[in-house]
Each structure stands twice: as structure tokens, then as C-alpha cells.
Protein: Phospho-N-acetylmuramoyl-pentapeptide-transferase
Organism: Cryobacterium tepidiphilum
Amino acid sequence: MKALLIAGAMSLVFTLVLTPLFIRLFHRLGWGQFIRDDGPESHHAKRGTATMGGIIIILGTVVSYFTAMLIADEPIPPSPLLVLFMMVGLGIVGFIDDFLKTRNQRSLGLGGWAKVLGQVIVAGGFAWLSLQFPNEAGQTPASTHISFIRDLPLDFMRLGTVVGSVLFIIWICLIVTGTSNGVNVTDGLDGLATGSSILAIGSFVVIGFWQYNQSLPGGVNPVDLYRAYDVRDPLDLAIVAAAIVGGLIGFLWWNTPPARIFLGDTGSLGIGGALAALAVLSHTELLLVLIGGLFVIETGSVIVQRAYFKVTRGKRIFLMSPIHHHFELKGWAEVTVVVRFWIIGGLLVAAGVGSFYLEWLSSRP
């Protein structure tokens, strides 16, 4: 608990205090946002705003997590390191994309398939590593089962070691690319992705701590077996989630409308990767559909818009996708869209955490 509080507080102070210094540095380096020409006209005033703010959040998270574990004199298990690996790895992919945008002064950096390839490489490495490092009980950070709130009977390894391992890696790559791109798509208004991510990743502080609280370290009451969670390092996952949330809260102070700095793909891909990693390692992969429900809606609006456009040869369902731009073009103020979408995201997170707790209540023998 001590490490959890220290990690969250240190990360918050890090981003809250140091972000203005990074803003000045990024302006000197010429790392300003390039605005797409076909976007809402109100966004053109944001051209040149400092971007790549994800660097600050990632640095704050990494420094705060390791410092907190050092101060608390706690050992560092592999599970939180895997979350940081995912966050840093996808942050690097996003940084390359952002850097190409600022250098070439256009709204497109890496090509679509190049970006996906980078995500797949990082996700594939994460998937492989997550099945290594067994503890004394032979438990690895991730499970080869598909999970909802707990592991379901669907185990990839039933198809054989080789086929099962390949399918497991593909499954993880789908989760990671879907989640990271979902956060990336949502990052279109000041503070929207940051605030929504605070809610979603914050839920894993609660989930991880609860799973730790319901673990079975010593003598086991047979009745409790129905309620215990088969998750490795749940408290450590809560600690690293707290570090990310603290960093996001401090950053949001400077990212709210009108934003002085943007996440950039560096931040959105890194945050999305961390969110996916937390879901995989806490065995709540499918629950992520609810916890990250706002990201699902945003991504879904893009998919539906493009599909409808192709089928009808030019017609549109929304004035513009992602759907937050649709409401902007209908006349909603940017801050109104952001706050209302935060509310929707919060309700979906509450539904996810509520489902998690209700499953625990219903697991009585």
C-alpha cells in the first residue's frame, strides 16, 4: 500500500510540475502539432501547440514506479515490468510517428501498416515474455486462457503447444492494437483521451488491489477457493496503474481546454498499450470492452463511417468521424463534448468495475 501511494503521488507531482519545462523544450525543438486541413475549423488555432506530451507521462511513470519500490523496499516482479515494457515500446512507435509529422509538417507520420507493424512487434514481444518467468507455483504473468473477469475454459494450449502459442500471440496482438488505436482515435479533443484514460486505468488500481486482497497467501479456507483470483502480482499491477494514473492527472492540468500540450501518438499509443497490458495480466481481457467502452465507441464510429461511406458510395452517417467531431460540427462547444464523453466513459468504467464486484459476490458456493 505504501508503494502504491508513493508511486501515484510522485508521478502526479512529476508531470504537474515539470510539464511547463517540457512545453518550452518542445517548442524550442519545433515539436508542434500539425492540424489536418479537413478537420473542424476551430482546430486550426491549435497548430503549433506542443505535442509528444506522452514522453512526460511515460518518464513520470517509470521514474515514480521504480523510486516508490525502492523507498518501500519492495522486490520488483515481472508483471509490472511487462506493463512498462508495453507502455514504453508503443510510446516509441508513437514517437516515431509524431517525429515524422513534425519534421515533414503534415498530419500523417508513419503509414498505417507501418504503425500496425510496430504495434504488432511490441505486442508479440509482450505476449511471449508474459508466458515466461514462472514463480514457485509455476504461475506466469499471463494465462493462455481467454479471460473475462476470471479465466474462461477456453485455453489456447488445448490445440497444442505450437498452435496454441501462435494463436495466443495473435490474440494478444489483436487486443493491444485494438486498445492502443482506440485511445489514439479518441485523442482528438483537448483532455478527452487523458481524462478517459484516468478513469479506465484507475479501475485497474481498484481491480488489482481487490485481487490482492482476495488472494490466498497462507492457510486456505475451502469456501474461499470459490472467490480467490488466480492472478500473479495483482498488487504490483495496482501500483504501476497508480503511477500511470498519477502521471495522467498531473498532465491533464496542462491538457484541458485550451490545451498547452497534446499527448501525441507517443502518449495515446503508450497509454493504450498499458491499458491492454493491465487487462491481460489481471485476467480481465474481455471486461476491457466495458472498462474501455468509450474507446470502443470512438473506434466503432470510424469503422461504421468508413464502411457506410464505401457501401453507399459517398454518403455519411456522422458529419465527421470519430464521433466527437460529429458533435463539434453540430455546434457543441469542445469542453461540452469532452466533459460529456468523460461522463459516458465513467459510467462504462463503473459498469465494468461493478460487473467485476458482482461476479465476486455471486461466486459463493
Q: What stands out?
A: The two ends are 30 Å apart (CA to CA).
